[in-house]
Design brief:
Layout lengths: L9 H9 L3 E5 L5 E4 L1 H6 L4 H4 L4 H4 L9 E6 L9 E10 L4 E9 H4 L14 H4 L18 H14 L5 E4 L6 H11 L7 E5 L5 H9 E2 L10 E2 L1 H4 L4 E5 L6 H13 L1 E3 L6 E3 L3 E6 L3 H6 L5 H7 L2 E4 L10 H16 L5 E2 L1 H9 L5 H15 L6 E2 L6 H43 L4 H7 L4 H10 L11
Parallel strand pairs: 6-13, 6-14, 7-10, 10-13, 15-16
Antiparallel strand pairs: 1-2, 1-5, 3-4, 4-5, 8-9, 11-12
Helix pairs in contact: 7-8, 11-13, 14-16, 17-18, 18-19
Protein name: Arginine utilization regulatory protein
InterPro entries: AAA+_ATPase, AAA_lid_NorR, Homeodomain-like_sf, HTH_Fis, P-loop_NTPase, PAS, PAS-like_dom_sf, PAS_fold
GO molecular function, one term: ATP binding
Length: about 475
């Protein structure tokens, strides 16, 4: 197979789109060449945006040496489960060599792999529902940035009502942290919080998980309540709702409007009183424009819209967050508290942080994992290699941009100065001494500038 033409082979792409695993193809250097739709959903980025990026930004544990890279979790501790079995293989055609990584969702595939076909899962909630408590509160949201504090105030006010809330922001900004905090601060805080990542569940399972099933609805179906029943009188959190199929969004809209659900295969309507908090990783109207989100559904779930600012907009919190994660992770690893070197902090401030706060936490944990007990601070050499290379390139690019801006500024100054000299010579009819006095400079200085800018005095003399 000619790897250079992989994107033009529609059949090959269709096959990869149809598999139940997330598939990412990347070069030996780590640069991503292509991924299927499921991969872009769980990585919270469109396929085009992910192209060319380093695979280790999204999957830090990936190794070119091992075929089986174990299990990874793409969410930080306490967030909705995104645990994946990571496997890698190499494709060769004699000339080219590419890496393919497969991510298989543990939370939703493993429970279905029942060795004994006659044995049913012991507990539906234990096997299918991945998250049923809210441990975070507003005081757990770290930062002093004004934008962030304004968002916290808005979220605290929203918690006092039962209106649906839509939280949007880049991946890793802390959308679920806010969702849990809102639930705990609300009147429903003592009741159940049920969270689900819509991108991590195969489309074929979503309807049964949301609305429940009746025994006999399909082969192997049993009587099970859906998420909306389980979360009645509490809160349901629908993360990455923009990855939900549009037909299911239409059914969700009906549930919100009518306040009841009908189990798959059933005929009875079951009344539910569930508050909905949703999250998406792009701007709401962009999601509507790209047909990721139904327009009518947006107006139902987005009664209150809360935007979480990315880390690049709250760089003043970098030092606070860094020290917080160092303290937290050192305690977890049983290590003495470390400092962060000025060089590392400077690099952090110049970096764009595409993975936001979550990426910052991973970088610090990776650095602290390998630092020696005798070393008092995190140095550049302790940072993951992929981060060092990408962040230094970003820093150098910013420095070049800064230099180009300085050059542009100097050009503007020269342009203004040249125009001033020309105007003075015109008003003085080409008399250099008179023009110099008007400009409050010596004749010699004016003559120097005329030579510098190629100004011919004869043009301005009247005959």
């Amino acid at each position: 197979m000619d790897f250079k033409s992989i994107e033009s082979i529609s059949l090959y792409k269709q096959l990869l789109e149809g598999v139940s695993d997330a598939v990412i193809i990347y070069k030996k250097s780590g640069s991503i060449l292509w991924c299927n739709r499921y991969a872009s959903q769980i990585l919270s980025k469109s396929g085009n945006d992910i192209l060319g990026e380093d695979i280790k930004i999204y999957i830090p544990c990936i190794s070119n040496e091992n075929e089986n890279n174990g299990i990874i979790t793409l969410e930080k501790k306490g967030s909705l489960p995104k645990s994946f079995e990571v496997k890698r293989e190499i494709l060769k055609d004699g000339v080219h060599e590419l890496n393919v990584v497969y991510l298989r969702n543990i939370a939703f595939f493993k429970p279905l792999e029942i060795k004994n076909k006659n044995k049913k899962p012991n507990n539906y909630e234990d096997n299918i529902i991945p998250y049923q408590n809210a441990k975070y509160r507003f005081e757990d949201i770290i930062g002093e940035n004004k934008q962030l504090n304004d968002v916290k105030v808005l979220a605290q006010r929203a918690a006092l009502s039962s209106s649906p809330i839509l939280i949007y922001g880049d991946t890793g900004t802390g959308k679920e942290l806010f969702a849990q905090s809102i639930h705990n601060a609300s009147k429903r805080g003592k009741n159940r919080f049920v969270g689900i990542n819509c991108a991590a569940v195969p489309d074929t399972l979503l309807e049964a998980i949301f609305f429940g099933t009746i025994k006999g609805a399909y082969t192997g179906a049993v009587d099970r309540p859906g998420l909306f029943e389980l979360a009645s009188d509490g809160t349901i959190f629908l993360d990455e709702i923009n990855s939900m199929p549009l037909y299911l969004q239409a059914k969700l809209l009906r549930v919100i409007q009518e306040g009841n659900v009908r189990r798959l295969g059933g005929s009875d309507n079951i009344t539910v009183n569930t508050r909905i908090i949703s999250a998406i990783n792009i701007e709401p109207f962009e999601a509507i424009r790209k047909k990721y989100l139904l327009n009518d559904l947006f107006y139902r779930i987005g009664v209150v819209c809360i935007r979480i600012p990315p880390l690049i907009e709250r760089k003043d919190d970098l030092s606070i967050l860094t020290n917080y994660f160092i303290k937290k992770i050192c305690s977890k690893l049983g290590k003495k508290r470390k400092r962060i070197s000025p060089a590392v902090l400077e690099l952090f401030n110049k970096y764009s942080w595409p993975g936001n706060v979550r990426q910052l936490e991973y970088i610090i944990e990776s650095s602290l994992t390998f630092i020696k007990d005798s070393e008092p601070e995190i140095l550049l050499e302790h940072l993951p290699e992929y981060f060092r290379s990408t962040s230094i390139k970003t820093s150098q690019k910013k420095d070049l941009n800064a230099k180009s801006k300085v050059i542009s500024l100097q050009e503007e100054i020269n342009k203004i100065e040249k125009n001033k000299v020309i105007i003075a010579l015109e008003e003085a009819s080409g008399n250099i001494s008179r023009a110099a006095r008007q400009l409050n400079m010596s004749r010699q200085s004016l003559y120097y500038r005329m030579v510098k800018y190629g100004i011919m005095v004869s043009r301005y003399r009247s005959f």
